[in-house]
Automatic annotation (TrEMBL):
Homodimer. Its cofactor is pyridoxal 5'-phosphate. This is Aspartate aminotransferase. Signal peptide: none annotated. It comes from Wickerhamiella sorbophila. PROSITE patterns: AA_TRANSFER_CLASS_1 (PS00105).
């Protein structure tokens, strides 16, 4: 018998499964709202102009292809940290931020998870319900115990703030809490500034450890500073946090795998110890990260003019998503839908949690060739001026 005769068949990845079904559909009006990648108004993948320009400059420099250091390119991760924490951030100025380039946001989460599994005494993390599906897999794989806290209330299609607070108040001191910094995936529901302040108070009082995941900086409001509000509020008010960053969405560098993981430390001496452990974690995982995307991101972030232009491109992507939300809601209302669709425009970022049931999502696919995930999540990026009418009609038909 084969050595692998006993290898069981694993389940397919839910989102990739949708892409397969979409590809197999021959209808010309089919729409894929499953993927979490930005599309332009023609439904095409989009490469930012600033990325094209930065790439041209990088190639023009005829740099070598030597290995990066274990924690990546310093001119990339320093600029990435400044984008997140702000250039006046105390931990950066005081040289007490441990930071490493990572294999995009997922790699940041995994490096962070390995660090917590080694050094957080509780070895326990709480995730919001629901959360990005890969979170649980990443933290479990690193050996952490994964629990949940309430986040989303199905009945109101909004934040279950009381549930969230109550669950964090119950958490044992020393437990890590994963917080989506902005543009919560999959719900598109973010806490308000006041709610963030209240979350900060609970996290501080209960002595929980805040781990932020910021995969969408700039994609929520269109403004990278505004989207960093929660992270900066926690840090500026004295709570040491850890942070996962991704440049997949806001630079459209999906396949380049560019991200960063950072931990706010108490002193430069502590930072040095944490840095040394990040290296020990990364070395046997992948030795060192890829250089090309990091060079592109560094070129953009370190050139004042190019950075300004990039911030404008981020805003235009966010604005297009906000516009598509309004258009979808307007079309649903114009069709005569009696349902309240205000959540379509009040939610934020790349995703909309429609409130549709799994059965209604199945009907969207089988009757209208519209593909989303069975939790009712649709990717706003997949909507454009040419397909929004069909989408609204389809959602209206299945939701009654
Ligand atoms: N975190 C969240 C909440 C996400 O939605 C994603 C991607 O969809 C990621 C992290 C990681 O993405 P990547 O590894 O492509 O940067």
């Amino acid at each position: 018998a084969s050595t692998w005769a006993n290898v069981p068949q694993g389940p397919p990845d839910a989102i990739l499964g949708i892409t397969e079904a979409f590809k197999a559909d021959t209808a010309s009006h089919k729409i894929n709202l499953g993927v979490g990648a930005y599309r332009d108004n023609e439904g095409k993948p989009f490469v930012l102009n600033t990325v094209r320009e930065a790439e041209k400059r990088v190639v023009g420099k005829k740099l070598d292809k030597e290995y990066a250091p274990i924690t990546g390119l310093a001119n990339f991760y320093t600029a990435a940290a400044e984008l997140a924490y702000g250039s006046n951030s105390a931990p950066i100025k005081e040289n007490r931020l441990a930071v490493s380039q990572t294999i995009s946001g997922t790699g940041a989460l995994r490096v962070g998870a390995e660090f917590l599994a080694k050094f957080l005494p509780s070895k326990k993390i709480l995730l919001p319900t629901p959360s990005w599906a890969n979170h649980k897999a990443v933290f479990s794989a690193a050996g952490l115990e994964v629990g949940q806290y309430r986040y989303y209330d199905k009945s109101t299609i909004s934040l279950d703030f009381d549930g969230l607070k109550a669950d964090l108040e119950q958490a044992a001191p020393g437990t890590a809490v994963l917080l989506h910094a902005c543009a919560h995936n999959p719900t598109g529901v973010d806490p308000t500034k006041e709610q963030w302040q209240a979350i900060f108070n609970v996290v501080k009082e209960r002595q929980l450890f805040p781990l932020f995941d910021m995969a969408y900086q700039g994609f929520a409001s269109g403004d990278c500073d505004r989207d960093a509000y929660a992270v900066r509020y926690f840090v500026d008010n004295g709570l040491p946090v850890a942070l996962n960053q991704s440049f997949a969405k806001n630079m459209g560098l999906y396949g380049e795998r560019i991200g960063a993981f950072s931990i706010v430390c108490e002193s430069p001496e502590e930072k040095a110890r944490v840095d040394s452990q990040l290296k020990i974690i990364v070395r046997p995982l992948y030795s060192n990260p890829p250089i090309h995307g990091a060079r592109i991101a560094a070129e953009i972030l370190n050139d004042a003019q190019l950075k300004q232009q990039w911030l404008g491109e981020v805003k235009s992507m966010a604005d297009r998503m906000i516009e598509m939300r309004s258009l979808l809601r307007e079309k649903l209302e114009n069709l005569g839908s009696k349902k309240d669709w205000s959540h379509v425009t009040s939610q934020i970022g790349m995703f909309c949690y429609t409130g549709l049931s799994p059965e209604q999502v199945d009907r969207l696919a089988s009757e209208f060739s519209v593909y989303g995930t069975r939790d009712g999540r649709i990717s706003i990026c997949g909507i454009n001026a040419s397909n929004v009418d069909h989408l609204a009609k389809a959602i209206f038909a299945v939701s009654g």
